[in-house]
Amino acid sequence: MSFITTVPVAEATDDVRKMYEQQQASLGYVPNYAKVFSLRPGVMAGWRGLLGSIRATLDTRRYELVTLAAARALRSSYCSLAHGTVLRDQFYDSAQLTSIAEDFTRGGLDSSDVAIMRFAEKMVTDASSVTEADVQTLREHGLTDPEIFDVAAAAAARCFFSKLLDALGAEPDAAYNDLEADLRQRLTVGRPISEESVEQLPLRS
């Protein structure tokens, strides 16, 4: 559900249907966040372009850790669950990821990962509080200035997406109920998971 009226999955045509198809090809269903963008599919296209340019120079694991830290600081259940799922599926077992989600400083990460997540958390909470010393700390953990830009860009981009979804009432997809209970609880930091079943596009006639 959301607070605005969106294009029903069964009635989608043209650019909206194309967007729904792209999302379903990735996830196996049409996610609730895509329905919010159904009113302005061009904005979704712009978001995908921006995100693609940011991710092109970021290691996948680093991108996901930065995004998880940002999402948790923003209290975005949707993004926390989505990117936590990627981390569980590709990089960590459920137990370690649960620990990371609870307190990333005590989750078995190396010091550079902790520094990156701490920076992302501070940035999205209050970017004006970030100091030159914070940036220098990342350098001391081996990051180059272009890599620091990448981290900041990923965290900043998450502010747009997470805040837009939460402001319009998009609920995390019911598919996230399949996560292990402890992990699901740690990743649900804001809005609860939707009670409505996920939807798929009807076959074209």
Describe what this molecule looks like in 3D.
This protein has ten helices and no strands. It has 205 residues and is an all-alpha fold. α4 packs across α9 and α7 crosses α9.
Summarize the structure.
This protein is mostly helical. The protein contains ten helices and no strands.
The CATH fourth-level homologous superfamily of the largest domain:
AhpD-like
How much is the radius of gyration in Å? 17 Å
Q: What is the beta-strand fraction?
A: under 5%
Give the count of structural domains.
Answer: 2
Secondary structure class reads mainly alpha
Order of helices and strands: HHHHHHHHHH
What is the CATH C level class of the largest domain, in words? Mainly Alpha
Could you report the average pLDDT, rounded to the nearest whole number?
Answer: 96
- The CATH topology of the largest domain is given as AhpD-like
The low-confidence runs, each spanning 5 or more residues with pLDDT under 50, are none
Would you count the extended β strands for me? 0
Helix content: 55-70%
Would you identify the CATH architecture of the largest domain? Up-down Bundle
Shape: globular
Count of discrete alpha- or pi-helical segments spanning 4 or more residues: 10
Q: Determine the N-to-C terminus distance.
A: 27 Å
SSE layout:
Layout: H1 14-27, H2 32-37, H3 41-55, H4 60-73, H5 77-90, H6 94-102, H7 111-125, H8 132-140, H9 145-167, H10 181-187
Helix pairs in contact: 3-9, 4-5, 4-7, 4-9, 6-10, 7-8, 7-9
List keywords for this structure.
205 residues, mainly alpha, AhpD-like, 2 domains, 10 helices
